[in-house]
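Q: Hi! First time doing this. I have a protein sequence and I read that you can turn it into a structure. Is that right? Here it is:
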Amino acid sequence: MKILVVGAGGIGGFYGAQLHQVGADITFLLRGKRKQLIDEKGLTIETPKNHFTIFPKTVLADQLEPIYDLIILAPKAFDLADSLNSISKASSHGMILPFLNGFTHLAVLDQQFGQNRVLGGVAHIAATITESGSVKQLNEMKTLTVGPRNPNQVAVCQDFFQLCNKADFDSFYRDDIELALWEKWVFLATLAGATTICRGSIGDIVATTYGKDLIQQMFHECCEIANSLGYTISDQARLKSLEILTKAGSPFTASMLRDLLAGNKNEHEHILGELINFAVKNSIECPLLKIAYTHMAVESRHQS
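A: Yes, that's right. Below is the predicted 3D structure, encoded as structure tokens:
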């Protein structure tokens, strides 16, 4: 299986490098400066346990050919259009595997490539690019979930899953991959909403008098929105998410908070805004989500 990974950021860089380590045929699509850096010095992955450097195949957008069996997309949601433009010379062939936050990107990809070619994927990792260009994993979490959205995708999903099983991260196969996407979205919206509005970690929030209750209420709002669209979050998934979201002393924060504090563009429109849009359409009350979204909208205007 020939795999094209679009970019070498926190998701694409980390998982692409891990798959490269176990012999997968990985090529990274990069911009000029990033390509030059990785060609000369390699792509370094820093984990809590070890560091390693690979020297993978790299390519620029104008050098692409339609030769890849799988194209992995993992940009920030606001960069999706640019990523799709960058793969135009390769995207007439193969399956598309997106690892984006939220759910609405699937409709965009289905329209452009057809639903038969768009798989489902969920990545759970906290990672960032260091000043030296390394990909740094910020905590122990490193899971990848993949699954078919229709029967003709089962074979390629299983082949990719078998590759993932060899690599140094936790991998899962889900027949109900769209539900898995919603499970992550309600978790992430709660994490992002709570940590950005409080400008603190989960541990900071639950250490206050009302913090734990407010996190639980925000998570309930998110689950109600998912349920209104036919995606019922199971009791097991709820308990697992709330365990992480209310853990005392936890340093866990959302990447949205890190982007906010650094003055970077963030995904509040896609993670919070699009979720609220579904709530409005289905008459679901979500006051805490709306407060979190409004806060981020105001902050983004100040930064622009």
